[in-house]
Specification:
The complex is a heterodimer of chains A (about 375) and B (about 230). With about 375 residues, chain A is of the alpha+beta class. Helices cover about 55% and strands about 15% of the residues of chain A. Chain B contains 7 helices and 11 strands. The mean pLDDT of chain B is about 90. Classes of the chains: A alpha+beta (about 375), B alpha/beta (about 230).
């Protein structure tokens, strides 16, 4: 107990230095946790994807559409259980800064394929019945203060004109990683509009979502779908939903690498700061370690004292850093919800914070400890004299 | 334990220090014995090797040549960890500048060496408090070193030195940093430890008044030991 008391007292001998080191650690832990959360937010779509869903798109590019007639052909393929389809609408609500994802989908099959979007039965039926009907995620509702029955107007950026929808339901995510800031409406409503406004775009869909009977058949079903449309005017590429989401991430991989590199630099900088603090602290007390060795303290006692002090400092920094990570992430998420609809500090990030802090505590103590345990007692005592 | 034999037997002790490429001899062929319960003062001018000799006897430095038998154990043959263990149970140290841990109270400083024993926390506290009572500092137990005078700090250091009940106490200029009154108190205390608790004390000092408190004075000059002088104390 006395040794632990000594560890605590030693850690705060130079209060200003220790407090500044802890402050540095707090900032580093917040920065590290924050950057990790950004990376995780980037991958949130991948995390939320299902192994039993495939995405079929035009082989040339996602920009090119596929004929709606493919739906029935895909349905006939062995291993396919359900088929839905949709278009990225890209509508703007009042101002472009109010960005949120909005899709025209075939409502029934889409909600069947995405059971993680929880909508009440009553709202679901209301949505299915009204061709102008739409559902929106809870976050979106909260953000814009919409109510059921409200008319929401989106200005088309891909499909020209102003499009009016009636809010019929609110969906909530079954899990934390489900994006609650999307907007879905009837594909038929878009298609009918296009027939009038831009007939060239009508009867085409941006992508098909295919539910397979068994996730293990995903590869084979993908091949069968793409084989069916080989040498047609619109050849297809079918991949798992995860691979489809990852293809978007690969486009921004360089940013992710930079973020991860910055995380590593933050760790290295704070390691240098803590190591410097420990080196100064031990150097100032070398004579004391010599005295402890003189009265019989062995190297393990010295190791315990120095490692204990270093780990104590990093633990305090880590603790306050973790506490501050949550409000920092929340403030960021509130501000940037358009771009990062899922921005949750995960348990893995917290565990990583703790592990990295512990590792910094260990690494920072190694050299000072070696110096202290190898101190020559006679020489150190001579210096005191 | 055969108390008719010397507690410490030193034979053919040599020690030199290296300064760059030059070896400077500090002790040359030192031979002498110290009896059980002796109070020995080692005197000599600066650089005569008296502190080096004290360090060798206390097992905190190693000689180049020679043997130091303490109660039959040749401590020059012990490894670092064996020496640490040996020091913890056989030697108490009193330094010129007290060398207390500034962030611990007097009681905690005295308790420190007891952490290396098998005593319980309660027993450790009791032993430390008892040691402080012996040095008349029971009313200062919870004071930090900075709240104590030099003489009081040295008395705490003495309590720390004998709290583990070692057979040997080594003191390096224990009064060197004290005023005359405090120095007298510290020396009286060391005499009591020698006479009442039968501790063998080896004290390095420059001060002839302090040396007179010892029973035997030995002079070192240029690394060579002169004959012992018996005091009247």
């Amino acid at each position: 107990m006395l040794l632990f008391k000594l560890i605590i007292k030693n850690a705060f001998r130079s209060k200003l230095r220790t407090i500044l080191t802890i402050l540095g650690l707090v900032i580093a832990v917040v920065a590290f946790g924050f950057l990790r959360t950004v990376v995780e937010a980037w991958y949130s779509g991948v995390e939320a994807s299902s192994a039993s869903r495939l995405i079929t798109r035009n082989a040339i590019s996602l920009v090119f559409r596929l004929p709606i007639s493919y739906k029935e052909k895909i349905k006939q393929i062995e291993g396919v259980q359900i088929v839905s389809y949709g278009n990225w609408f890209g509508g703007v609500y009042i101002d472009p800064k109010n960005f949120f994802a909005n899709f025209a989908v075939e409502p029934k099959s889409y909600l069947d394929l995405y059971p993680e979007y929880i909508v009440s039965e009553e709202e679901k039926i209301a949505f299915f019945r009204d061709k102008r009907g739409a559902i929106a995620g809870k976050k979106l509702i909260d953000k814009f203060g919409w109510k059921i029955g409200d008319t929401i107007t989106l200005k088309g950026t891909i499909y020209p004109g102003e499009w009016e929808f009636v809010l019929k339901g609110i969906y909530k995510g079954r899990d934390r990683n489900i994006d609650e800031s999307q907007f879905f409406f009837h594909w038929d409503y878009l298609n009918e509009g296009l027939k009038k406004k831009a007939p060239a775009f009508a009867d085409q869909t941006g992508f098909y979502i295919v539910g397979v009977t068994d996730p293990r058949l995903a590869a084979i079903v993908s091949e069968r779908i793409d084989g069916t449309f080989k040498n047609s005017l619109a050849e297809t590429v079918t991949e798992t939903e995860k691979a489809f989401q990852l293809s978007f991430i690969y486009m921004t991989e360089a940013i992710l690498i930079v973020i991860q590199a910055v995380s590593l630099i933050v760790i290295i900088i704070i390691l240098a700061v803590v190591a410097n603090t420990m080196a100064m602290s031990v150097r100032e007390r070398l004579a004391e370690f010599a005295v402890l060795k003189t009265i019989g303290f062995g190297k393990w006692n010295i190791i315990l004292l120095i490692f204990g002090e270093s780990i104590l400092i990093t633990t305090i920094g880590c603790f306050f850093g973790i506490i501050l990570t949550f409000p920092a992430a929340k403030a960021f998420a509130d501000e940037m919800s358009n771009y990062f609809p899922i921005f949750n500090v995960t348990r893995e990030t917290i565990c990583l914070d703790i592990a990295v802090s512990f590792l910094i505590g260990i690494l920072a103590a190694i050299i000072p400890t070696l110096r202290a345990i190898n101190v020559n007692i006679a020489e150190s005592l001579t210096r005191i004299r | 334990m055969d108390r008719t034999k010397p507690i410490i037997e030193i034979r053919g002790l040599h020690k030199s220090y290296r300064r760059g490429d030059i070896f400077i001899p500090v002790l040359e062929n030192i031979n002498f014995d110290i009896a059980y319960g002796e109070f020995l003062a080692l005197m000599g001018p600066s650089g005569s090797g008296k502190s080096t000799l004290l360090n060798l006897i206390a097992g905190i430095d190693k000689p180049d040549k020679g043997t130091i038998l303490v109660e039959g154990i040749d401590i020059t043959k012990l490894s670092e960890s064996e020496l640490a263990h040996w020091r913890a149970s056989n030697v108490g140290f009193i330094f010129q500048f007290y060398n207390l841990i500034p962030v611990l109270t007097a009681l905690e400083n005295v308790e420190l060496p007891l952490l290396l024993t098998n005593l319980t926390k309660k027993e450790r506290r009791e032993h430390a408090a008892y040691a402080l009572r012996i040095v008349n500092l029971d009313d200062r137990m919870h004071h930090y070193p900075s709240q104590l005078s030099g003489g009081q700090q040295q008395r705490v250091a003495i309590a720390r030195a004998f709290v583990t009940d070692p057979t040997i106490l080594v003191a390096d200029e224990p009064t060197g940093d004290l005023d005359r009154v405090s120095a007298e108190e510290v020396l009286e205390l060391m005499c009591r430890l020698n006479q009442e608790l039968r501790k063998t004390i080896i004290m390095v000092t420059h001060d002839p008044r302090a040396a007179k408190k010892a029973r035997i004075i030995r002079h070192l000059e240029k690394g060579v030991m002169n004959a012992a002088v018996q005091t009247n104390y």
